[in-house]
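Action item from last week, closing it out:
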Amino acid sequence: MLDAGDTTFGPHLRAVLLDAGGVLVLPDPARIRQRLGRLGGAAPDDDTCHRGHYLGMREVDRIGWPDWASVDRVLGRFYGVPEERLEDAVIELDKVYLEDPWVAVEGAAAALAGLAAAGLRLGVISNASGTMERMLLDHRICALEDDPEPAGEGTVARVAVIVDSHVVGVEKPDPHIFEIALDAIGLTADRCLYVGDTVHFDVEGARAAGLAPVHLDPYGLCPGTDHVHVAALGDLVPLVSAP
């Protein structure tokens, strides 16, 4: 496995594009407990909820396509839902992912600030439901470069583009969604990295579009040895800041 200690990226690098789910935001553990608690026996703590998200993404990679019902059953078992209530868990977990608010990944905003301080432009490419720009702003994770300074304490990292699949009508791993972001940021693929939390959507999609992929894998779940892994977004900062 290639990890953050195995590589740095050269002076040609001009931008880092990022996934949102699993990289900048995560499902809210409180909502997971609330919804699954109705089914009996499930009260996972915050770390278990976070680990579950990445376990679910690992299941997508194992299957090779997004069979969300199968993923939700894996998560239901992991979170302690009784076997006889797993189909109910599928319904409730879909609501967690598609309807409920998400929370910021700890350290994500600071990592974006560190990448920007290294002289890199930033962008977001997310399979989302049309609200990702607002969610990232509400959590003070990032705002578009041409937006007025958002109210609140402290500065917010600026990104050149936020591509939401619901808005543009194409999803990862289709390379076209990456091309939309590249056109908006005005750079060629060889000048950019893409950071995501899956092989199927992110590593394979980025490669198909010509970007170097970085897999954010905080629990070391990915067995792949052909792409770079980082345990946290902040781990990427010294790799792109190296002379």
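Closing note: The chain has a mean pLDDT of 93.
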